[in-house]
Amino acid sequence: MIFNKTLCDLANGFLKKKTDLCQAIPFQGKKRNHMNTIQITFPNQFVLGLLCCFFSLTAYSQSQDIVANIREISEKDGLRYREIFCSYQDHEGFLWLGTQYGLAKYDGNDFTYFTKEKDGLESNAIHQIIEDEAGVLWLVSYDFEITHFWVDGLSFLDTRTGRVFGREEVPPPLGPGLKNFDIVTIMPSDRHRVNCFDRDFSFHPYVPGKGLLAARRVPGVDISNSSAPYTSFGSEQDGFTLGRAFYEAGFHGASDWIDKPDQQFSLFHRQEDGSYLGIHRRSPEVIYRYSASGQRSPLGLPAPPRSSQKYYSFAKYRQSDRSIWYASNKDFFVYFPKTGGYLDFRKEYPDYFRTKTIKDIHFGKDGLVFVSTTYGLYIIQVRPNPFAHFLYNDLRSASQEQLSSCRTILQMGEKLLVGYYPNNYSVFDLGNGKEVRRDGGVMPFPLIPYKEGVLLYGHSDHLVKWWFGDGKQEFINQLKPGARLWSLHLCKDSTLLIGSEAGLGRWKEGMEMMGDYEKSKGFPALRTSTVYQFLDTGGEGLLLATSSGIYQMDEAAGVTARYWSGGQGKHYFPFDDVLHVFREKNSPGKKETSVYWVSTQGGGLIKWDKAAGRCRQFTTDDGLPSDIIYAVYADKNGLLWMPTYNGLAAFDRQKEQFRVYTTNDGLSHNEFNRNSHYQADDGRLYFGGLNGVNAFYPSDLLKGQSNDSISLHVGQNENTGRPLVHITSFRQFDGRTEKFVEQPDTFLQKPSITIRPGITYSTLTMSMLDFIDPQHVRFEYKFDDCNCPWRPISGHTLELNDLSPGSRTLLIKGQNTKSLRESEVREIPIFILKPFYLKGWFICAGLFFLAGSFFLFHKYKSRRLARRKEALEKEVERRTAIILEQKRALAADEKKIKEQAAEIKKLGMVIHMSKFAPEDVEWLNQLESIIRDKMPDSSFKAQDLAAAMHHSRSQFYRKLKSLTGLTPGAWLQETRLQKAKELLEKNELDSVKAVAYEVGIKPGYFAEAYRKRFGKLPSEY
Fold this sequence. Notes:
flat, four-stranded antiparallel sheet, about 1000 residues, 16 helices, six-stranded mixed sheet, 64 strands
């Protein structure tokens, strides 16, 4: 429980005869730029004192100060062995786990295992992992006894190749000196990553290529009374002197070295003021601050650790955020000495840590903490909570009735007024976040400033004028009984527009009751709708967000337009139940915008271009956490912020991508409320929900956005800061052997793919080394020679098949859909080899074979043609006889042909132009000119003549028939045949076929048509 001093003072006020409880609370109206002051007094100090005292016992005003994201890695994620001794994140960002049964490599998605039996480790029990400057992992196994331990097994793993080798086969690049060296323990230091200690407690720095350097001593350490192989010193020196000596030598947090029987002590960091932090395992306070001279004082933890067994307590200091991490068999917490932030993991996350023994804490890259336990690995990300909370309750311990469901938020200068269920309001000092006033019996909703010292608010279906300073209230009769008020808007003429569950009302000073708004009769649906918001658009008047669409309103003319799902043209809007409308601000130098962003109760977010009548709808299919959105606000960076039914959504309008924040990110509750939102002049946003108010500056969330999936920074591009896509495995399936071919680990360092004939398909597995949110990582690919969009990859494995031979480049990129962070594009060369039948020698042999076959075929064809020639000569003789017979038949029909010719002449083919009027002669000349131009075109038909002469077909037919007596088809045919006769008589062309093409008659039809017209064949010329 949080007892606010101000509230307690108020509660005791009734003991005084005259208690001045006045407070000056400045407030800023929405339409004012100057500050005003309201005097607050209370008429009944006794009642108020009791109320304040009661509420001080039931409400929380303290917010969470630390947010933790925790991911558990266990058997369900593919971990074979649940007990983890140690962990280590290498220079590329891959995670290595030491277990009782071997080493595991983890990329955020999959595990790769190394064992003594399969890979040649000296021991399967891995208790320590250290990486040297060459990227080689030292895998250390210790043999433990009650009082001491020593190195029992030492193996090496080259992270570049994946090769494991033991001490007996250390390759020359690692250097000499390890084969016969008896190592007691191995410790990293500031200067050298690896230091090997011998039985004399001398340490040998290790440098790749040079091996172990000459033995060195830790300055200031007396080892005269030590007895090897003990790793704890038995000298007369006190623990602080030993710890400081090791710390100054670069060995930080060497707790196992300073393990004296009477002083189980570890020094783990020196502070900026020269003091040291240390852990005393047998002291009740455990963690102390030591002055430079060794004087100690308790650190003053919020909850001192409980007594612990000797070998199950240790503390580590993380320099990046100056935090202390303490673990024992009973406690596990993180503490920030500078800010006082404290998080007890066993208390806050009992399902994770209550029954588990913590073996090791490793600080990974970019803020991740890897906790090795007897039941799996835990990956922790802690950061300060970017959200400030008002009226916050712990969701785990508070009942639903104890939660404060907020409806009203109004900032008044440096004070914040919050109205919440059940019928309460509180005032907070924004300077320190403390509650300075509380009252019960009323929840002012909706609420707006009216005059200096006066507020207007809704109380169910009543309107109330509230003199905030002295508590005086004046109730104005309801608009309609039972019609709850939802929104208020003060017009320039001081008329108050009232939005309720029964449409619009109005009130003005002097009216005893609210009245109907008469200027909306043209829109009967509005009278039964809930009005949630009045948006002042300036020159375009007001927009009303209602349960039946959006209405346009002018203070003088009244309601003038409706935009809804039944509207036509520009009055169409895709969803009717509208909660809030935000108008885009004008860009400098550009014309006024008509784009609005609309939040709806079930229809998601809608981008509405009001002038153009266009809408673009975004729903859960596009990344929204819910289709119920309570409000839309923009920050100075152009992002839209929306409280929803299931979390807080941020929308990047340029990329059209959503980022979702939940209780895991520090929110007090995932469900927000209608009309419980406010944006201050400094850009701070206040969103109320089922558990108080969440207040934040968007810039604070954007600063921490890169840490939301913090491991994405591992292995990032140095120039762009974007994470890299790591190829974690590559396999090919050989269709001839029907087996997978594993590629060597060297491929993973500098991958290029060669696909040989017979390879059915190849699979690439990739990772962005996201250890917190791998489920939010998506990959896409395409080829550099393909002008096509990026294609999504299902999961994190890409299958390649049916690729054409040649050289190409595969492009892969990843994105975390939660943090909206994109990776660098990974380029992988691909060489698809040709099968033998596409190679040069095979093609040459094939051509030679084809040439020989052609020669043989030619000889065979020549003989066959000779036989056919003989047969054709006989056929010519037969057909010649037939032609002579046809000629005789044609002569017999000569009389008939002449009669046909005479008939055609009679029809007017031979036309004397003198018979026609001049305009008819000109018309016929134009027609003849068109036919001459189009004559070679066999597709030019009689119907095309009408179009060419700019006549309709019927008009053209009548005119030509009246002048010539011929139809258009007959006229066109006769003209072509006359031209053919002329060409044949002049013998200007080489063949009859050429004549046929010249006049636009198909050769197969030409001879017969010509014979019918002129009585002989064209070939007779």
